[in-house]
Amino acid sequence: MAKQISFGTPVNDAERWAFSLLAEELPDNYILLTNVEIPTKSGQAMEVDALVIGEWGVYVVDVKGYIGRLDAGLHAWSLDGRQVDNSLAKANYVARVLAGNVKHKIPVGVYAPWCQGMVFITGRKGEEIELEKQEGSLSIYTPQQIVAALTKEWGLTAPHSHQVTDEQKEMVLKTIGQVALVEQRNNKIQDFTKLKCLFIQSGLEVWQAEYNPGGWTAPWLLKILIATQFTDQAQSESHENQLRAEFKRLQALTGCSGVPYCAPLIQDGEQLVLPIRMPRGVPLNILEFEKLTTYQLLEILRRSVSGLQQVHRRGFTVGGWAANCVFVSDLGDVEFIDIKDNLNISEDIQAYAEGFLTLAEQTKQPRVYQWYRLAAKGGSVDLDALRCDLSALIDNGVCDSLPERVEIATGAIIDHHYKLEQFIAATQDSQFWRATHIQGQYQCGVSIYSKVEAKWPTLSSLYRSLSKLHHPHVEKVLGFGQLAQSEDLFIARGWEYGVSLDELADIQLGQPVMWFTQLLSGLQYMHQMDIYHGAICPKNIICNLEKAILVNFGIGLDIATSHYASRYADPQLWAAEGDAERDLYGLVASFISTLAPVSLQGDGGQEGIIQALNSFDKEWFGEKTFNTCMKVLNFEFDAPSGMNYLQAFDVADSLI
């Protein structure tokens, strides 16, 4: 892209289009002066459409928007049979004047650069033009040849070719006069000074600029729309509406972290300008996150989430998630410079997760990168949970090196929070411990589960939901995560005093119906939230004198299968059943097997549980409750969404 300095305003569309083409196509070391005046000895100035200071010479370019067939000779020209002015003769004359002026100013020992005239026939924006030259050497070119003629040696009319030196370029600029002042004027928009063009296409430009109202400066971005450079009015109006809409969005988001400040729109008749404060830091695509500490990475993620949440709470979405449109500062601040508001919230979160996934994986924190992996696939939209996790990791301190593997034993520290105090029970793939919350100094339970890496995304989503819900008869989740350098999952839960249902030594009258009713209310609440236990058995029901609690949601299957496989976890038995019906089956079967003598349960399968139920007195059990339990055990009971379980089992009064 050539450096363009505009001395005046283009007089027609042909000039505007020609200048835009030359500025975009000519090399960076070329200088393009447009609508410039060349002084003569008499003091009269001659206007030149374009003056190109190039590699091989200085070209006085006359722009003509002729449409049709042009026959150009050395002396006369005709356009579709009509006589038109010989523009090359005029351009050559001005070139000779310029060459003479340069020779008078050039110091001794320095050669003057070659100056020549040239005509650029544009047609209708590069089309609808046919050129016939009577002599092939005439410097008259269409858009297909103009750039090559200006940049290649063959475009010269000089007898000998010499490259133009930097000193010769400076002498030409001095001959023109006031070039620096004109350039400064062109680069000034109110108190903003354009420094570097970052993007230019049709009538859209993006400039790096400087705000300098007095004794201090600040970096800004200027989005400039020049209506006259668009191909048609409709396109110009469309882009203007987009720029105005962007201004309104930025104004509405003022004060949100992650959103750069914008100044009011500037409209001077020729251009519409949106000033946006230059984001601090570097784009995400060139951020060297490998050199950052774990704490710095987590802080970047936390601030990005906070900024995104604030944008969403104002009723907008970011949309512009290209890596070069997200900036990260040295302090970890994150800013979005392309807020498009063109996605819904779920799509916006997915795009955000895709953009920050690599950075999240660099933290080596499972609960962090697993969220980003899941969200990048469209599987999670819970920003609150992510922000809470990030804050907890930062506030409790995280080693920048990879954490050591935790050996599960008395005194071990889990997730910086929980100290294992007493081993309670174990199965082949799980352990349960009584632990102390180190900071809070209260008792809690910690379960350790092995070989759950493949189930982590599902379990993570489940326990995030459980951690935000409360029901007195459902375990209270305090924390969860994956242990370092292992596939083991830990879940910390509120400590519940009591024993599992099958270990009760003494059952008082009225306790079973109380516990059963409490657990039904808990199941109904969870099912309404689309949360299912999946492995209800006596080992996953904790009872005390006052209440019963369901534990081990989603991961108690190994406990169920190790003790009651044929009754509660037979995959063939459950193949055609829904999640809600499975949970209800497990609950009913657990209480029947606990209350009935083992001798009445046969082989312990479905038929045995039904046989045990038939041993109870319907009147003592309650006829409606008995019939509903029988339907559940026969898989004849449907549990549609919204069903009241307490009424269906006729135990609503027992909860009061």
Automatic annotation (TrEMBL):
Pfam short name (any one): NERD
Source species, domain of life: Bacteria
Residue intervals of the Protein kinase domain: 418-656
Residues of the signal peptide: none
SUPFAM superfamilies reported for this sequence: Protein kinase-like (PK-like)
Molecular function in Gene Ontology: ATP binding; protein kinase activity
Domain NERD residue range list: 10-121
Record InterPro entries: Kinase-like_dom_sf (IPR011009), NERD (IPR011528), Prot_kinase_dom (IPR000719)
Protein's name in the database: Serine/threonine protein kinase
Organism, scientific name: Shewanella violacea (strain JCM 10179 / CIP 106290 / LMG 19151 / DSS12)
